[in-house]
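Example record

The entry below shows one chain as it appears in the dataset: sequence first, then C-alpha cells.
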Amino acid sequence: MDREDAILKQVLDAVEARTPLAIHGGQSKAFYAQPRSGEALDVSGHAGIVEYDPGELVVTCRAGTPLAELRQALAEHGQHLPFEPPAFGEKATVGGTVACGFSGPRRPWAGSLRDYLLGVRIINGRGKALRFGGQVMKNVAGYDVSRLMAGSLGTLGVILETSFKVLPKPLRERTLRFEMTQREALGQLANWSGKPLPLSASCWRDGQLFLRLSGAERETARAAESLGGEAVDEADVFWRALREHEDEFFSSGPLWRLSLSSTAEPIDLDTPCLVEWGGAQRWYVTKANPERIRAAAASAGGHATLFRGDIDDIPRFHPQAKGLQQLQERVREAFDPHGLFNRGLLAPKR
C-alpha cells in the first residue's frame, strides 16, 4: 500500500506548526535508544515490494514492508539479505531495520547493512521527498548519502523506500563446536580469519566456541575436516536464537553491547560474557557500574551501549568525542533544521 501522500502531508503540517514527530513502524525495536517525544507518525502502512529482479540481485521496497515478507520473497528465489538482520519481533519492518542499522552473526565476513544499502527515498525536515543512491553500485558517486540512514534512528528523515543488493543463499552450512576459554577462542578466531576459510558466524559462551561455515559442499566439508571440532545438528535453531536474542543468555537484566577490536583482550566484568563477530561484539548482562563498563570498553579502544533495559540517568549510547558530536549535529541540522524527527531518540538533549 502506498501511503506516501498521507505521510508527506503529516510532515508538511508538522513543519508548519513546528510539531515534533515520533516516527515508528512495527515498534519491534522500541526498547532501543532514548525515550522520544512528539506526535506519532506511523509508517507501517506504507508497505509492499516495489521492484524485485532476482537476476539483477536488487530489491526495492517501501519502509513499512514487514521484514519477514521481504525474507520470504527472497527465499523463494534462493536469495537472502547477506547481513542477516535481526527482527526482534514479528512486526519488524524494513524501514526500522535500516533506521537501527542492525546486522546479524554474518556481519564480520559478509558486511553490514550499510554495505548493501544501494539507495533510499526519504522526506526531510523541510517536507521535501528526496532520493539518494540508486539500484546499482555504480550509481554511487561523491557522498553516499543513502548510507547515512543506516543507524540514524529516523533523526535525518522519514524513510519511504529502500533498495538493497541481495545475494544467493549459501548452498551448504556447517556448524562446529570447540571447547576452549574465551582467550583461546579470540586467538583462534584471529588466526582462522586470516586464512581462506568459508567463515560466516562465530559465537563463544560458557567455554564453548561455535563456528559456522557457509559455501559449497566441497568447500565447507574440506574446511570442517581441517578445523576439527564437533559437528552441531540443527544449528539453524542456534543461530536464529542468537540473532533474535531468544537465547537464554539475553533473558534478564540490563544488556550491554561492547564494540571492540576483535583482538582486544577479554574484559572481566564479573558476569558471563557472550562473544560474537570474531571477537568484535561482546555482550554482558550485568548491573555493574556503568562508568566502569564504559571505562573498560574505552581502554580497549571501543565503546559500550546499553542495548536493553534502563538505568536512571545513564545515557544509552557511549559519550562521543566533542568533534564527532558536532559533526553529527551539523548533519542532522542539514536534514532536519527544526529538529522535528524523533526528538531525544539519539540523545536526551535532541
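Notes for this example: Residues 4-168+328-335 form a domain with the Uridine Diphospho-n-acetylenolpyruvylglucosamine Reductase; domain 3 fold (CATH 3.30.465.10). The chain has two domains: 4-168+328-335, 172-252+254-308.
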